């Protein structure tokens, strides 16, 4: 009993001490505000997503910085991914169709899977937040034959 009594007194002293020093904070329960940036079942170029890789899911998020006036190497993605432009702008170019679309700071986009494409920055550095949903240790990006890695 003595141990329990000492523990109770210690807990009481900690509680009183926190109250006296102003470090105890009332917890408030509230809902948060959500800005829904993107919901997509197809990529920016209109191609529908058809599958996820099988196996253990793996999520990855990277912050990618592309210098001004830079075209990334042509590549494909074997897994679904989305991006968000933190700074600058990104023009995505589709190699086969020649289609392109420019995304500006504050815009989200759904990248294509299995389609050869590349990103091109504008007059300033482009900073992207990229999130990949993969599995089975698949790479996030695969360069086309003869091309360098995207990152």
Write a compact overview of the structure shown.
13% of the residues lie in helices and 33% in strands.
Question: Keyphrases for this structure?
Answer:
151 residues; alpha+beta; Jelly Rolls; 4-stranded antiparallel β-sheet; 3-stranded antiparallel β-sheet; 1 helix; globular; disordered N terminus
Describe what you observe in this structure.
The protein has 151 residues and is α+β, with helices and mostly antiparallel strands. It has a domain at 57-143: Sandwich (Jelly Rolls), CATH 2.60.120.10. It has one helix at residues 2-21; strands at 57-66, 75-76, 81-87, 89-94, 100-104, 108-110, 117-121, 126-135, 142-143. The strands form three sheets. The chain has a four-stranded antiparallel beta sheet, with no helix packed on it. A three-stranded antiparallel beta sheet has the order 5-4-7, with no helix packed on it. The longest helix is centred in the first third of the chain and has 20 residues, at 2-21. The radius of gyration is 24 Å and the shape is globular.
């Amino acid at each position: 009993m003595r141990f329990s009594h000492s523990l109770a007194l210690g807990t009481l002293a900690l509680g009183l001490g926190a109250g006296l020093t102003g470090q105890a904070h009332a917890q408030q329960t509230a809902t948060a505000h959500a800005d829904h940036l993107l919901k997509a079942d197809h990529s920016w170029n209109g191609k529908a997503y058809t599958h996820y890789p099988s196996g253990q899911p793996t999520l990855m998020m990277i912050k990618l910085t592309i210098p001004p006036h830079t075209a990334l190497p042509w590549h494909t993605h074997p897994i679904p991914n989305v991006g968000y432009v933190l700074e600058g702008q990104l023009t995505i170019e589709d190699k086969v169709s020649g289609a392109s679309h420019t995304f500006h700071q504050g815009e989200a986009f759904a990248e294509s899977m299995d389609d050869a494409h590349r990103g091109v920055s504008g007059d300033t550095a482009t900073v992207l937040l990229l999130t990949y949903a993969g599995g089975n240790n698949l790479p996030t990006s695969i360069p086309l034959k003869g091309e360098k890695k995207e990152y």
